[in-house]
């Protein structure tokens, strides 16, 4: 249980020591890049914190550096009254967050959790993305942002994929990670569940398959996006209904995973219009 709770978010409680329990929790959450045991995600930066507010997330604690205090009082009224509001010396704040040039605000927020069944049952009309081993946080953040922009149902995160709560993923998603339904699963479980719902399965391929413009993505579909280096595991290809190729110059070996997913999602949205 957290101690020293201060329920008035309109006031900042000054913290001097790095051993404060909330500061330690923030530091550990950023270090692990996963949800805490109580389902909280560590976030930083004014824009990302504002996106969390806009998304209706519940804050457990918000942290400001002393140099950012003037901006703190503009943000505090937007945060629910039950959250902690802490003011840290700049050096202590910098040691708790991963950014090289921190903006002076960070927070612990309760992330929404989904099961694979809930992702598949989302009301959006777009395809489901199944991420098969994307490891670059920037790529996954881009995919999540494009998923929201182009109306994907949601995202299933397979084994070997970077955590969607990694701070770099959250930042690259520009806050979309707070709103796009995502769930961790395994490739075998994902395929079994998708098949049980009669959802067509597609995988991306750099050099073979049906050209994207000739692929029907207007109905119920799931698209598998593979690892940046090796793509979708070839063992999965035999379980797909079709492979999709995005035509591009032969001078380029393959497309960035985030770019490929974004092009696919745009085409699926275009076909639905």
Count of helical regions:
10
Number of strands: 12
Structural class: alpha/beta
Sketch the topology as an H/E string, one letter per element: EHEHEHEHEHEHEHEHEEEHEH
Radius of gyration: 20 Å
The structural domain count equals 2
Average pLDDT, to the nearest integer? Answer: 91
Superfamily at the CATH H level of the largest domain? SPOUT methyltransferase, trefoil knot domain
Q: What oligomeric assembly is this protein in? A: single chain
Determine the fraction of residues in helical runs and give it as a percent range.
Answer: 25-40%
Q: How would you characterize the largest beta sheet? A: 7 strands, parallel
CATH hierarchy: architecture of the largest domain? 3-Layer(aba) Sandwich
How far the N terminus sits from the C terminus, by CA atoms, comes to 51 Å
Give the neighbour order of strands across the main sheet.
8-7-6-11-9-12-10
Classify the beta-strand content into a percent band: 15-25%
The CATH topology of the largest domain corresponds to Alpha/beta knot
What would you note in describing this structure?
- With 273 residues, the chain is an alpha/beta fold.
- Helix content is 33%, strand content 21%.
- The protein has helices at residues 21-32, 46-54, 69-75, 90-96, 116-120, 137-149, 167-172, 187-196, 234-237, 257-272, and strands spanning 13-14, 40-44, 58-65, 84-88, 105-110, 128-132, 154-157, 182-184, 200-205, 210-211, 221-226, 242-245.
- It has a seven-stranded parallel beta sheet.
- α7 links the parallel β7 and β8.
- The termini are far apart.
- Residues 1-10 have low confidence and may be disordered.
């Amino acid at each position: 249980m957290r101690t020293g709770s201060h329920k008035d978010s309109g006031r900042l409680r000054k913290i001097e020591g790095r051993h404060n329990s909330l500061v330690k929790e923030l530091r550990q959450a950023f270090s692990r890049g996963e949800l805490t045991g109580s389902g909280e995600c560590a976030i930083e930066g004014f824009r990302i914190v504002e996106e969390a507010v806009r998304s209706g997330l519940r804050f457990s604690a918000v942290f400001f550096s002393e140099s950012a205090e003037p901006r703190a009082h503009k943000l505090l009224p937007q945060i629910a009254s039950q959250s902690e509001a802490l003011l840290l010396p700049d050096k202590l704040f910098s040691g708790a967050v991963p950014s090289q040039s921190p903006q002076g605000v960070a927070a612990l927020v309760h992330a929404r959790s989904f099961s694979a069944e809930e992702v598949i049952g989302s009301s959006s009309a777009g395809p489901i993305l199944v991420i098969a081993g994307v490891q670059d946080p920037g790529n996954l953040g881009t995919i999540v942002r494009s998923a929201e922009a182009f109306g994907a149902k949601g995202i299933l995160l397979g084994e070997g994929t970077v955590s969607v709560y990694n701070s770099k993923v959250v930042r690259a998603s520009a806050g979309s990670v707070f709103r796009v339904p995502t769930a961790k699963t395994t490739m075998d479980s994902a395929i079994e569940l998708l098949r049980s719902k009669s959802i067509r399965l597609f995988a991306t391929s750099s050099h073979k398959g049906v050209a994207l413009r000739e692929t029907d993505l207007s109905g119920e579909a799931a698209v598998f996006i593979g690892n940046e280096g090796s793509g979708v595991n070839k063992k999965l290809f035999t379980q797909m209904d079709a492979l999709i190729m995005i035509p591009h110059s032969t001078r380029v070996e393959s497309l960035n995973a985030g770019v490929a997913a974004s092009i696919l999602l745009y085409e699926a949205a275009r076909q639905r219009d």
